[in-house]
Structure formats: structure tokens, C-alpha cells
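Question (not urgent): is this output format expected?
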Amino acid sequence: MQLIGSAEKKELGEETIEKYEEKFQVFLALGFLLLVLEALISERRRE
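Got this back:
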């Protein structure tokens, strides 16, 4: 027990890690849906 008590005391630093939630998938899906709708509408106009 003496060894543990006489060891150097070290302070642990605090580290903050920020995690960002990516939300681009919503806009990507919306853009893809609009492209598909535009293709369908333009096909109907040609006929």
C-alpha cells in the first residue's frame, strides 16, 4: 500500500469531442425525388 500512496499524482485532463450529425441525406433524397418527378412529367408532355 505504501507504493501506491507514494506514487506521483497526475491530473487527468478533460477532452471535449463534438460529434456532428449529418443531415444531408434528406436533401439528397429530396433532390433525387424531384429529378425522377421531372423525368416523368417531361415524358408525359412528349406523348
